[in-house]
Amino acid sequence: MIKVENVTMKFRMANDRINSLKEFVVKKTLGKITYKEFTALKNVSFSIQKGEVVGIIGSNGAGKSTLLKVISGIMQPTTGSVKVEGSIAPMLELGAGFDVDLTARENIFLNGAVLGYSKKYLTERYDDIVEFSELAEFMDVPIRNFSSGMTMRLAFSIATLVNPDILIVDEILSVGDGSFQKKSAKRMGELMSGGTTVILVSHSIEQIKAMCSKVIWLEDGLVQMVGDTRDVCKAYNDKMKNDYLINEQKTMSKKEDNTDWKTKLYTPTSIEKIEELYFIVDCWHHRVIYNDNLTDPIKNWKTLSNNIGDPHSIVSDGIFYLVEDAQLNEVKVFKKENNSFRQIQTIEQLGQRPNRLIYDSDNKKYYGISAMSQHVFVLSNEEDETIICEKVIRLGYLKEGSYIRSISLIDKELYFVSGPGKIIVANYMNSSFDKLREYKVPFELQGMNDITKIDSYYYISVYQNGAGEIAPRLVRVKDLDDLAQSKYEDIYAELGLRGVPYNFSFIEDRVFLTEIDSYSSIISFKVDGDKIVDVCSHYEAGAAADSSLWRRNS
Amino acid sequence: MLMKLLGVRNYGFLLSQLVERDFKNKYRRSALGVLWSLFNPLLIMAVQFMVFSTIFRFDIPNYAVYLLSGIVMFNYMSEATSQSMTCIIQNSSLINKVYVPKYIYPFSRVLSSGVNFLFSLLALYIVIIFSGMDITYHHVALLYGFVCLFVFTYGVSLFLASVMVFFRDTQFLYGVILTVWTYLTPIFYPESILPSQISSVIEFNPMYHFIRFVRVIILNNGFPDPKAWLLCAVFSMMSILIGAYVFKKTQNKFIHYL
């Protein structure tokens, strides 16, 4: 019925419109005419069978209207061909071709003639058109005296009552008052079920879904997708949502004060006290901040660095301060100089996504884990001058392809959590990293973040379940062997958590726990004889603000 | 084949509708309406007759008929071409929305001016009869002259209509050209008063040949010589070929300039 083959439509437009002969001659001789080539349609091919109702979707400027014009023959494609069988009634703009000086009656015949119908046929349909438009008493009134609603009603009646083979509709217009709208929708329905091929352009996906059996999605003049209405609409909606978010973030970043995020935390992965200073690793803001007072608002904190890709932890031996850059796969080494910090070194080749550093003050070594590549690395202080990398190894018992978020030191043993979906304990003192034992964990705890021991309990924070879905939990258990039977105590609610519990740290006599992702916050509590007391919230930032989202992706 | 036949008929109806519209719009709200087509050439003739026959005292037998025949012919050409020149621009809303072969638009203007022409022809015959001149069988040959004029006019119209789309100052330029053309055509003066250099230029004026062809028949009651027949044919063919060529070459670009 309609066959569009490899249609390309190029416009060569002079940059400034030349409408006078003088201008043309002057500019042509001076060689000042510049042309801009614009391709509205690129190699578009598809076919439409008789009786199909086809929707065309795409954002503004995607080429939809140009495509309609090419199909209806108003424009000739630059290359390619369009084959159409049957009469076309284009409703590109209702009432185009009306002459306002002529009466409604005269316009019915003129418009009908323009649409290609014969006098005999129009005479036959005349009464129906008049009746449908409900304008019988105005037939001898010039259109110039019509209201816009009356004009539209007349135009709609002409376009749809002549039973075209192909009806091309650019945006279904809501024509007239409520009752007429109902009538016109019904008429459209009749046409569609009556074998009329309909090509419909609309920005309303709901309308397209309700009416069309097939959808063509155009973007930048290219056919993105042709097919079943549901599939195409879904893909289109997803794309739109995505674009919208990106756009929103862009405008937000422009609109909002860019420093807005600086007053908040977004996924603070860790808080530490090193000597007299408190450090917060503000992971998704890509920075580490510090202050000498825990009660100051965040905006008063000083910045150690705000140029670290997803830092997770900070450790120090009192001389050096080490922070891992999970995006650049390196560890950055800072030194304190006159109340500020200066980066003095970068250690690379530690595997992919270094995710956690710890410092063992007993043997004066740093240990780190690269989450993605399962590398364990050992760093040490060389005469307070530099940090050297002693060892990078990949441990066979850490399942390949797993993601290990953290390592912890508990009772002179190294604990690996998450990744393998179990807890693995290794000997680190001799740097052999031999596996000592492992504990099975149930499905709901498999995406663990951190483990620590306080008094007689092991505390474990959890990000995801075994299927990788975010399912935050905070549990404690006295014997790790009990985990396999899910015999643990869930204390998530008791601590009033709202986000994902992440990292434990100990500052003075309090336990600090960071909360990340959907809800950013830091809490602290005391443990007294295995009883949790004095729960306290610090720096509750909550859900991420737009400027934070933008900062995370920048 | 049937489709093709149907297609032609469809456009015939459209054409008649367009002509009807032009005509209706032209005389909308005028008391005399269509009668103006009759009176207009008569009044112009009356004025020019008085001016030229009293002031310049041209010695032309049946000067009224001489004058009116020239006016009727030339006016048709100038009206039709001026009307056609703007037709593409004026119908831009249609051209942007519906596919209709674009040659229809100048054609409808040439036709609606043609209806006007028929009325002025009526005026011409009234004057012929009042002047007591004979109407002989030679008048049949007028048809040939009119057809040639029509074809010539359509050719010029096609050319102007397409040029106008690209250069809007064509209409002002053409106004000047029309004035010059009027004076270079022996409408109200006899050919004999032209100096020899100018009369050789006149040979290249198509309107001169069309008007002369008609005048020979009406005023002399005879057939024009074979050369006159040929010249009319040549000029009208040239015009239509050039006009159609330019129009065809440029018509697909119209839409980008409307």
Task: Furnish the topology, listing elements before pairings.
The complex is a heterodimer of chains A (554) and B (258).
Chain A: E1 2-14, H1 21-30, E2 35-48, E3 53-57, H2 64-71, E4 79-84, E5 88-91, H3 104-114, H4 119-133, H5 148-161, E6 166-170, H6 178-193, E7 197-201, H7 205-211, E8 214-219, E9 222-228, H8 229-255, E10 268-274, E11 277-282, E12 287-291, E13 302-305, E14 314-316, E15 320-325, E16 330-337, E17 340-347, E18 354-360, E19 365-370, E20 375-382, E21 386-394, E22 406-410, E23 413-417, E24 422-427, E25 434-440, E26 447-454, E27 457-464, E28 470-477, E29 489-490, E30 500-507, E31 510-516, E32 520-528, E33 531-542, H9 546-553
Parallel strand pairs in A: 3-7, 3-8, 5-6, 6-7
Antiparallel strand pairs in A: 1-2, 1-4, 8-9, 10-11, 11-12, 12-13, 14-15, 15-16, 16-17, 18-19, 19-20, 20-21, 22-23, 23-24, 24-25, 26-27, 27-28, 28-29, 30-31, 31-32, 32-33
Helix pairs in contact in A: 3-4, 3-5, 4-5, 5-6, 8-9
Chain B: H1 2-26, H2 35-56, H3 63-85, H4 87-90, H5 92-97, H6 104-130, H7 142-166, H8 170-183, H9 196-202, H10 206-220, H11 226-250, H12 254-257
Helix pairs in contact in B: 1-6, 2-3, 2-6, 3-6, 3-7, 3-8, 3-10, 6-7, 7-10, 7-11, 10-11
The N- and C-terminal alpha carbons of chain A lie at a distance of 50 Å
Overall residue-averaged pLDDT value of chain A: 86
* Number of separate strands of chain A: 33
Order of helices and strands of chain B: HHHHHHHHHHHH
Most extensive contact:
A-B, 33 and 30 residues
- How much strand content do the residues of chain B show? under 5%
What is the CATH topology assignment of the largest domain in chain A?
Methylamine Dehydrogenase, Chain H
**Oligomer type:** heterodimer
CA(first)-CA(last) distance of chain B? 34 Å
Strand content of chain A: 35-45%
